[in-house]
Design a protein that fits this description.
The chain is of the alpha/beta class. The protein folds into 2 domains: about 180 residues, Rossmann fold; about 110 residues, Arc Repressor Mutant, subunit A (Orthogonal Bundle). Strands 2-1-5-6-10-9 form a 6-stranded mixed beta sheet. A two-stranded antiparallel sheet has the order 3-4. A two-stranded parallel ribbon has the order 7-8. α1 links the parallel β1 and β2. α5 runs antiparallel to α6, α10 packs across α13 and α11 packs across α12. The protein is globular, with a radius of gyration of 21 Å.
Length: about 325
């Protein structure tokens, strides 16, 4: 008889001021592993300090299963959100709970705003932690005992895992599945959610949109829209519609602000991301191509030669 798969036991401790995308990405990916197996291989509990609904950054309440669950049978406690406002008086309770989990050798995980919570409690002292680039300096000043980094989607340092939020929370869930079950199970779970595959933890996050260099708000918003869809490039017409101008007007704005066409700026953003992935990750050229919206590795390699005057191999050798 085939061996029955192990079960992955997680408690997601939801506080306040979190993004719904992060929670959905976590839960959907863990649930997808169970659906792929046809049996409950991922047992996930949604909890809050009080057992009352959690409140997202958009002030949407999310019902939960229970208050804090005893951590002895858990593999991971995942913290999402901040101890602010109405939850401030529960700080000591949450701190004691997480420290108990740590003493029981449970791995503590922080996602997006949950990383700040772990740092404030002191559970990241002496550890490396993953945060967005726009909060790194501020958090480093507030919590000098933590080594904050913005160079990857997630970091695993001993029994601490930290991750960016949004869709990156799905990659985190896949990493937990891969560690506890198998990489094949993680891939299967992610594919059922219509994603291309699992991004390795060391994958650099998408480039921060260089929108601040532009004076015109419509150009800034167009560049942000481009940066948010590097893997699946959108038609310039659609981006123009998003910012409320015609394609012709958007092109005039880009030529005035960037001295380039909107299409050229978009390609430049994708190639910058491709270069970073080639330099900072072990992903194959084909995987980098998919992550930056090119048809395949050959298409990416041709474009890099034409635009940057190098090959993917030469780019990697420069940092090797």
């Amino acid at each position: 008889m085939p061996e029955k798969p192990r079960r992955l036991h997680c408690a997601i401790l939801i506080l306040d001021d979190f993004r719904l995308t992060s929670l959905a990405s976590l839960v959907d990916t863990l649930d997808a592993a169970t659906r792929a197996f046809g049996r409950n291989v991922c047992a996930t509990r949604l909890t809050t300090p009080t057992g009352q609904p959690a409140r997202s950054d958009g002030d949407i309440e999310i019902p939960v299963m229970d208050s804090l669950v005893w951590p002895s049978d858990l593999d991971y406690v995942i913290v999402l959100g901040r101890l602010t406002g109405r939850l401030w008086r529960w700080s000591n309770t949450v701190s004691r709970y997480l420290r108990t989990a740590d003493r029981l050798n449970v791995t503590i995980v922080g996602v997006e705003t949950g990383v700040e919570t772990l740092a404030r409690i002191g559970l990241l002292d002496g550890h490396a932690a993953c945060v967005p680039v726009d909060t790194q300096d501020q958090l480093q000043e507030r919590f000098p005992e933590v080594d904050f980094s913005c160079a990857s989607l997630m970091l695993h340092d001993r029994r601490r895992i930290t991750s960016l939020g949004g869709v990156a929370a799905s990659d985190l869930a896949a990493e937990l599945i891969a560690n506890h079950l198998s990489p094949a199970d993680a891939h299967r779970a992610v594919v059922t959610l219509n994603r291309e595959g699992v991004r390795p933890p060391a994958t650099p996050p998408p480039l921060a949109a260089p929108a601040g260099r532009y004076a015109d708000d419509r150009v800034r918003r167009a560049v942000i829209a481009m940066e948010q869809s590097l893997d699946r490039p959108r038609p310039i017409d659609a981006i123009a519609a998003d910012v409320g101008v015609s394609r012709r007007q958007l092109e005039r704005l880009f030529h005035a602000e960037a001295e380039e066409s909107a299409k050229a700026v978009y390609l430049s953003l994708r190639l910058q991301q491709a270069r970073r992935l080639l330099e900072q990750s072990g992903a194959t050229v084909s995987a980098v191509a998919l992550a930056t919206g090119f048809a395949d590795g050959a298409h990416l390699a041709r474009t890099i030669r034409q635009e940057l005057g190098q090959t993917p191999t030469e780019i990697r050798k420069q940092v090797g």
